[in-house]
Amino acid sequence: MSRIIPLSILTLFIILSGCHSVPYAEMPVFLKDGVGWHKVRIEGEVNLFRLRILAEGLETLPGNMATRVQAVVYHTNREHLASYYCGAREIYLAHALGGTICFDASAIIAKKDIYHEVAHLYEAGLSRQIAKEWAALSGDIYRPNYRDFYGNYHEFGVVDAYGLVNAREDIAVTVQEIYNYCADGDNKLAFAISRFTPENKGKMLRKLKILLETEMIDQEKHDKVKVLCEN
Ligand SMILES: [Zn+2]
């Protein structure tokens, strides 16, 4: 069934561009998610590889999360990307706001980036209480100089150094690494949790419960990661 997606995208591109990458496009594409097919507006510097990564990422995520994505923008112009963002926060690789995911088109975009940004979209639609509850669990770990902790981020109970930015990024990297581990077989999550203190493993178990209750992960993924926390 999943083979249909790249094939349908391929057909679209043959029609639109004679199979070359499209430097600037604005078009609706139907992508499959956990529920069925849904329409996503694609804008910017898009190519077959990026569409395929997007399609595979959305298909891996549950429908309740994937259907939040209404548009995906690929652009190298930071001012253009910033126009999608209401705040003054700096764009790093990508950001998510109100149904639109934006990516810096000069960067390599991986499936884990799709998981990360969709997690932001979904979490933004939940009660503010969720991020507060998460932050309260984490304690005083968030800091602007997260780059100083690339080698030992796990000491703080996060699964990626970028999770040290704030609770919302922590939620996004946790969701990202859970899907990366459970769906794509990447071991970064297992490595990080194996180095957590017993206290942080306990906190991770409670964070997993939050992700399960808010339907960001299903029972199967919850149980698979729970095992890592109990070892
Ligand atoms: Zn983020």
Task: Set out the fold topology.
Blueprint: H1 4-17, E1 22-32, E2 37-46, H2 48-60, H3 63-66, E3 71-75, H4 78-82, E4 94-97, E5 100-104, H5 111-124, H6 128-138, H7 167-182, H8 188-194, H9 198-213, H10 219-230
Parallel strand pairs: 2-3, 3-5
Antiparallel strand pairs: 1-2, 4-5
Helix pairs in contact: 1-2, 2-5, 5-7, 6-9, 9-10
How helix-rich are the residues, as a percent range? 40-55%
The general outline is globular
- Assembly state of the chains shown: single chain
CATH topology of the largest domain: Glutaredoxin
The average pLDDT is 85
> What's the SSE pattern?
HEEHHEHEEHHHHHH
Query: What's the total number of strands?
Result: 5
Give the CA-CA distance, first to last residue: 36 Å
Radius of gyration: 18 Å
Q: Output the strand order for the largest sheet.
A: 1-2-3-5-4
Strand content: 15-25%
The computed structural class is alpha/beta
What ligand molecules are bound, each kind once? zinc ion
How would you describe this protein?
The chain is of the alpha/beta class and 231 residues long. The chain has two domains: 4-123, Glutaredoxin (3-Layer(aba) Sandwich); 127-230, no CATH class. Helix content is 48%, strand content 15%. It contains ten helices and five strands. Strands 1-2-3-5-4 form a five-stranded mixed beta sheet. Helix 1 (4-17) runs antiparallel to helix 2 (48-60) and helix 9 (198-213) packs antiparallel against helix 10 (219-230). The chain is globular. The model is unreliable at 1-5 and 86-90 (pLDDT under 50). Zinc ion (ZN) binds at residues 116, 120, 169, 172.
